[in-house]
Write a structure and sequence with these properties.
Bound molecules: adenosine-5'-diphosphate
Largest sheet: 6 strands, antiparallel
Structural class: alpha+beta
Strand order of the largest sheet: 3-2-1-6-5-4
Shape: rod-shaped
Number of strands: 13
Number of helices: 17
Distance between the termini: 108 Å
Helix content: 55-70%
Order of helices and strands: HHHHHHHHHEEEHEHHEEHHEHEEHEEHEE
Length: 611
Amino acid sequence: MNALDLISLVTQLIYVLIFVSVALRTVRQPTGAHSDMTLFFGAVAFIILASRVAALIGTAAPPWLTTVEIAVLMALPYLLLRLVDDFTNVRSAIKRAAELGLAAGIVATYATAPTPPTPVILYVVLYFFVVSLYCALAFIRSARRSRGVTRRRMEAISLGSILLGTDILITGLTPLAGPDDRAVLQALGQLLGLGSGVAYYLGFAPPAILRRAWQEPELRAFLARAASLPRLPATLDIVRELERGAANSTGTEARIGLWHDETSNLRFWEDDGTTVDVEPGKHFAGRAFELQRPIFSTNPVRDNPDGATNYRARNVGAVLAAPITAGERRLGVLTLTAVRPPIFAISDIELASLIADQAAVILESRALIDHAARVRAREEATRLKEDFLSAAAHDLKTPLTTVVAQAEFLERRATRDPSAPADLAGIKRVVRESKRLAGLVGDLLDATRLEQGRLVGEREPVDIATLAQEICSHDTSDLTLCQVEASAPVVGVYDRRRIEQLLQNLLENAKKYSPEQTPITIKVWQEDGKARVAVTDSGIGIPAADLPRIFERFSRASNVDDRRFHGMGLGLFICRGIVEEHGGRIWVESEVGKGSTFHVELPIADGRRLN
Ligand code: ADP
């Protein structure tokens, strides 16, 4: 056997192998495309086997067999055209022309048998070449539109078609060439035949390892984006990104439904934000979820009549649903829909399953992140509660002890000597400490209201300048020198009680953290359409390191201690709450040993009409 014979044998073996492979696939999945592939390669295999058998027996084939062989050979490009038609629409004019051309070729060959004249041979060869070339171009166009494995397979098939068409052209023209050229053309023809066989093999029946290698770039692109997905703000954002990734990788429309524990349904999110729930076992998604395996349909209207209207309306010709499952946890389903059944369903199912597995990993890590955040939030809440309880217990205990001790003392005195004059100083102390106690309890309640964002109530026009004057003049203690600087009324729409509380808190702090008999100024003015307040003292000041957290709950500066300055660290927290719920802001400028100025900026109106 010489080299050319060997090439011819290998080529023929490849074609027979492809035939067996596509025939088996057609038995497993009888789709139109699969049957057409079987027809095409069946025709090639028939021609190969017939010629081999004839060569083996050693007799010339009977004339009827030769004519059948010629007819089948001529039908090859037409069968290829049918294959093209299975995944892109071939215009019916072209189909009719190809059929007519085929019929004309067969008739001409029969009429002139057994030795057709050169024009007939030329016609047949050209017919073969032109139709194969058309098919190759159609495959190339289709390859451009597809992605991933499908694209590679289409490219291989178009290459196969070009090589086969050229092979037939050369083989057909060989008898017309001179004897020297004939051997070269024959060798070239054999090589082209081998090339077309290999290309068709890669396109129509690629081994799994190659399919996987072709899937890799798509998966890689998907994974490159996937790594950051679990950290997106909401699960729906992740779902959308996964859908986009799956759609890009497969060239289909992708939807993800997540298992919803409360309703025991799969929940899909539409583009307009509405949700659609699918019961397990219903539709393709529900079935894939229940059976925990991919489901593929090339005739969704027939296979799922419940969804027929929807499929018709959306022009859906193929559906693939793959479960998204992480270990034992069934998380949801990935569904891919396409207008036409994909020609290489196996590759698509494999890729969809890989993507679904990745989606499972991503959704699972998202769930873990959420879980960790919940645990952290719970721990934080517990810690805050503990802080709160110990701070509250500690701060309430001091005035309460004074009140109880003083009251017991008054009681003992009154019991011992009922006619003795009242101890006014003792009673005043009880009243003062009780008021402090009430103030602390009020702060605790306000802090809780603030957490719920309902500190500020009914609003009305309030003149902050007048309010500051009132507060200053009510400050009856002769230990401080409170003064207000305001040249005009500053009226805004506020909750009067809360603004009063704000000014009162700032004034109280200024007094508490300043030496006696030092002036405290409350300046009120209007600037850039905003109400402005500045409360200035010349007290102990706040260390720079403490400034960033001074408005936080239970936060106290490092230069204050409980023995000299009572306090819970809630006053400024409440002040900030009042200001922010009014749409304003509060900040402080301070220097240790020199004093502090607390600034408040409030909008004049809150956007509502004043009556
Ligand atoms: P409290 O006064 O009960 O500690 P606040 O929330 O009112 O709580 O204040 C928080 C902290 O801010 C105080 O503990 C104190 O360290 C500091 N601070 C507030 N106002 C002043 C001020 N006028 N001068 C100096 N430090 C102040």
